Amino acid sequence: MKVVVFHGSPRKGNTYIATRLFMDGLSQCGEVSYSEFFLPEAIPEFCMGCQLCLSNSHEKCPHSSYIEPIFQEIMDADALVFTTPHYGACSMTGGMKNLLDHLDFLTLTVAPRKEIFNKKAFVLSTGTGSTAAIKPIKKYLKNWGINRVSSIGIRMFIDKWNSMPIRKRRKQEKRLCHAARKFFFMKKKIPYISSIFMYHINRFI
Ligand SMILES: Cc1cc2nc3c(=O)[nH]c(=O)nc-3n(C[C@H](O)[C@H](O)[C@H](O)COP(=O)(O)O)c2cc1C
Predict the structure, then answer these.
(1) pLDDT digits (tens, 9 = 90+) for 13-25
(2) Cα 162 from Cα 67, distance rounded (Å)
């Protein structure tokens, strides 16, 4: 299985530790190869809203030197993993939001891509008390036409992974391993109704 991982946290902290545990869990299930992108380094420029990727082609993006390698990796992958800590009211980190802004041309309303319909995705989030960052990312991915999106939210109630009481940490490690196993063996299913609906509506538009 070829997996692309987008690390949304600007530091190698809780979300990074949880992501590694998830990736280890995947690798225990079978052969897995990874390509990893660390945000915001992978796209240090903000989307400029020029809409060239929507009206013309993603190759016209002023930041195509960053976007094209990411786009190619996504197209070649079997599965995508998006990870972010929970930040404030709007939830995901700025780096993750900037990635999704730059990739908005993948939305079904812009141009449906067969390759995307065969992919599965996983969203992982850590937060002191909240994991609300998962929902908006899931929505993006469903709008791309991703076949299945699953997720795990880790509420830590503490700021450092290794400061969690040992029992709680073991429990989170088990959850991550279990989620990885379920994701690895997750088979392709009938697309989400919302994706089918968006696809057929936009065929006419
Ligand atoms: C700028 C900022 C805003 C945050 N806002 C929230 C929040 O609204 N709710 C919450 O539960 N945790 C919040 N947190 C805590 C982080 O989500 C939590 O510590 C997370 O595990 C950090 O992940 P990291 O170590 O991968 O960076 C915030 C942290 C930062 C740095």
Answers:
(1) 999 999 999 999 9
(2) 35
